[in-house]
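User: Round two. Same drill as before: sequence, then structure, for each protein.

Assistant: Same drill it is. First protein:
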Amino acid sequence: MTTSVVIADDHPIFRDGLHRTLDEADGFEVLAAGSSADEAISLVGIHQPDIAILDLSMPGGGISATRKIAAMANPPFIAILTVSENNSDVADALEAGAIGYIVKGVTASELTASLRSIAAGEGFVSPGLASRVLLQINREAEASKDGDVLDDLTHREEEILRRVAKGMSNREIADQLDLQEKTVKHYMTAILSKLHARNRVEAALIAHDAWGKTD
């Protein structure tokens, strides 16, 4: 299966290099490339890719483009590819609708592996950033919520969230719990709503903090 991609980055050398990397990788097709938020929004509307890869600091802003693309009908998965390791940038990108946050400097194999996770809807945050973002999410959650939101989960929802926190895909969870994949997706919708999480990355980070990694 080929994953179609639209790229938006205002640095032509980096943009061309990313284009070549994905062209040479198995399973990716770059449909178009732009250099600004406005171009990104337009290209996504025209080509309807599986993934939109957006630079954070391009003209018009990657966060603004993310928010507008995420509001489209049938939006693509959105990945931010940036040099910024600022906690608030990561949190803002996830809040705007991105499910991937990749720091530039990764190898080609690391990049394609993370994009494959994103194409599967699993989300990805570069290692090292996730724990820092978790702290920020927790501070915001503690300031705005009373009680432990995880207490609202049903037993089945907790079973699924614990597996999401381990990085398992919906298909893997379905196989392990003897459920249909669409049933897992239904439970994930309920879990995200109860946790007030925008995506499974945020949900996994909340679960990691509450339950740790040893379960």
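Second protein:
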Amino acid sequence: MIPVALQPEPADFDEKVRQPGLRWLTANGIDPDTPPPRATALPNYWTRSNRQLWEAYSGVCAYLAIFFEWVTGASSTDHFIAKSRHAGNAYEWNNFRLSCLGANRTKHQFDDLLDPIGLAPDTFFLNLADGKIRPNPSSLSPDQKKAALKTIRRLRLNSPDHQDMRARHFSRYLESKDEKTLRELSPFVWYEAKRQELL
């Protein structure tokens, strides 16, 4: 995971997503600042901005820091603050994180992990040989390190498949020396390779 900059809200977001959502909450007697009785009952107006979210973040998953194509159907809107905890945030652009479907399912309703938006630089280090992520060993406070470890566990960022993917991305770079493609397709691997002066 690397820091993600919050992108501007689309011009038609209020009309397409926020206002319909707030109207529905009002019509059903739900205070937008409270947890809804049933999060699964909330209308999914947020899907109306799925394509805009993918484009705003250049197709890069906020949690895995990899590019994925729109046509794969793997794009999803993750609500960083879960819909079950705050009804109004279900329809707020700044609560949306572009996520691969798998990462979104893994995160589920948990929000006790580090937010890629606002994440401090160099929170995570990467072993480019085996693809394993670890908290920065030298600059994090004990609480920050604990949060980083929880994030790794919660998102299963060190599963064999995740590690293999990252190691493969760097291995392919070594074969082609195509830094531009590495940066576009695997920004975290690119960032770490650059930080480690291996590009």
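The two ends are 19 Å apart (CA to CA).

User: Perfect.
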